[in-house]
Sequence to fold (279 residues):
Amino acid sequence: MLALLAGLVAGCAPASDGGTTLTRSALVEPGPAPLAAASAAAPVTVPLPSTTLAPTPAPRPPSTTAAPPPAPTTAAPVTASVAPLVTAPAPPPPPPAPRSVHEQAWTPFASIEGVVLHHPSARVEAVGFHESNHDGARDLEPLSTAANPIVLESRERGTGARTAADVVSDPEAEIRAPVTGRVLRAGTYVLYCDHADDYAVIEPDARPGWEVKVLHIDGVTVAAGDRVLAGETVLARRPTQLPFDSQVDDHTASPAWPHVHLEVVDPSIPDRPSSGGGC
Fold:
């Protein structure tokens, strides 16, 4: 604006004739504005230097070649000092139970309807009552003088639990008659179809017609028709030592003594046939 006013003043300068003369410069448009005014009127754009970014490298594909396995390491051998195993000696077996021997002079041990049975030996360990395999065998009543009487487990024979008795006797003691009477038969038979054994059958004076059977005796010394007295007459030299275990052995000392089998039979009672058959 100041430049414009200055121009107008210059154009209106007084003429020499006293009038006002418009000079050419007054009709010409003013020139460009001063630099300060131009700077204020137009924005200045300053170009930024271009920045070139480095390209991002593409990811490397995974390697298909397996890495070599690590070299094996060899551990140093370990030597352990092991003490030798010492096995303690087995304890000695317990001593066998002492044998309880009843020293008695062929005293009575059982009875049935007037028939009294005596111990067949002077040295007896026990009397084991059990089931007879004969249906006519009678149940025996133990007496107070019986040597260690016991009743054995059932043998499933269908007879009374005390219809027979196994008298465990000294293997070297003689066997005497358990009852007074007459010998009906005596001799040797085959036990269980395999073992030789001696026997004697006595008809007791107290019950004629009945039979007192004596089995498992060795070296029988009487014959049919002989008279015998209870506790006096020798029937055999010793009891038979059977080659197998018997039920009564579970209740005696070890090694087991032999036993003499006794039973009182009423032959009028029929006996059922044995399922095992004869020999």
About this structure: The helical segments are 2-11, 35-41. The CA atoms of residues 108 and 118 lie 4 Å apart. Residues 2-11 form the longest helix (10 residues).
